[in-house]
Amino acid sequence: DEIPTVVGIFSAFGLVFSVSLFAWICCQRKSSKSNKTPPYKFVHVLKGVDIYPENLNSKKKFGADDKSEAKNKSAMPKNSLHLDLEKRDLNGNFPKTTTKTQGSPDLENSSPKDFAERKKDSVSPDSLKSITSLSSEDKQDKLGTLFFSLEYNFEKKAFVVNIKEARGLPAMDEQSMTSDPYIKMTILPEKKHKVKTRVLRKTLDPAFDETFTFYGIPYSQIQDLTLHFMILSFDRFSRDDVIGEVLIPLAGIELSEGRLLMDREIIKRNVRKSSGRGELLVSLCYQSTTNTLTVVVLKARHLPKSDVSGLSDPYVKVNLYHAKKRISKKKTHVKKCTPNAVFNELFVFDIPCEGLDDISIEFLVLDSDRGSRNEVIGRLTLGSSAEGTGGEHWKEICEYPRRQIAKWHMLCDG
Asked: What are phi and psi of 404, to 5 degrees?
């Protein structure tokens, strides 16, 4: 009787030991995987701290000689850029240090006056000619000034953009008379490499000092690129307000001598750049007796192709606004793989006020994507303050109630 008891006790101890050993091995593997350094291709830095992947093999990553560089150029598609995540310390904060580039002043100690004084020296005359000048209307509506710097690191084959600050932004919040600004930056012409700064609360003079480093861009390719800065104000309850934009063609800008400090006036967003977004056919009818607005989304045509799959999967989101506040929203079904979609879907909206004076309606044509966030293909707004065909269509709806009126409209950028 004692022998089975002893065997059972030893078996139990062996089982407990085996389970504990297995759990310990799993924890060690998990911790070792979390400590591995990811293959950095893009680095986003706050407060001027440059972080480069020094622990990676530079020969394999960036090319050590002309032969390997030639192979990389042939294998790499034109205008190919790479992105990665931002890096913080153990507490989740960004260490505040300063970096200096040979032959250029330190950005941390530079004031807006320094930017203006060095603007002529840092930018060539050819680049100034290539940049679109402000129209008389844009000069009347002052939207502020954006300060930034450009640099190319030949050792790392990296293009570096530092968004320093913005000055004199308009107040987008009428109650607090301030804004919550942030900046989206896109490298054209690919338009799929997008980055953005953090949101700074309640300020008209935001100091971002954020550095975006793009690896794998040959210096010869820089001349073909254009930087597009979109300045926005964050809105928690509706769509973010667009303050303005800055467009910087890099053709003619010489980056071989070090960091260039630049500043540009923020101009009003150009809605005419929407060519190629496609068209949308909608029909509207205002019933004055029931105080309802009937909206029929009929067709879309000539929609642009998506970057990855070639064809988009479009659907339409309809938003109803009263005094710039969204009060209702609807959306159509998704049409798979087509640039010419037929929806034929009807929506009825209850109007909270008499008449359509404070009412506007927004159509967003989006590309459905299960793997990531749905991209906006184009945008259309109908209302009393809308320009072009949107305003004309709305005027006819108000003048002829109980009549269904349909029109084609060009979509603008979302």
From this structure: -80, 120
**Sign of the C-alpha dihedral computed for residues 148, 98, 217 and 80 taken in this order:** negative
Query: Token match 């053709």: residue?
Result: 251
278-411 CATH choice from 2.60.40.150, 3.40.50.720, 3.90.1150.10, 3.30.2350.10: 2.60.40.150
pLDDT tens column, 122-161: 444 444 444 444 444 444 468 899 999 999 988 888 889 9
How confident is the model over 295-307, as pLDDT tens digits?
999 999 988 876 4
Q: Using CB atoms within 10 A of its CB, is residue 108 exposed (0-12), middle (13-18) or buried (19+)?
A: middle
Distance CA 361, CA 297 (A): 12
Structure tokens at 262: 């630049």
CATH number of 144-270: 2.60.40.150, 3.40.140.10, 3.40.47.10, 3.30.420.100? 2.60.40.150
How open is the CA angle 250-251-257, to the nearest 5 degrees? 70
- Digit-coded pLDDT (tens) for 307-336: 444 578 899 999 999 988 999 999 999 998
- Mean pLDDT of the 239-244 span: 84
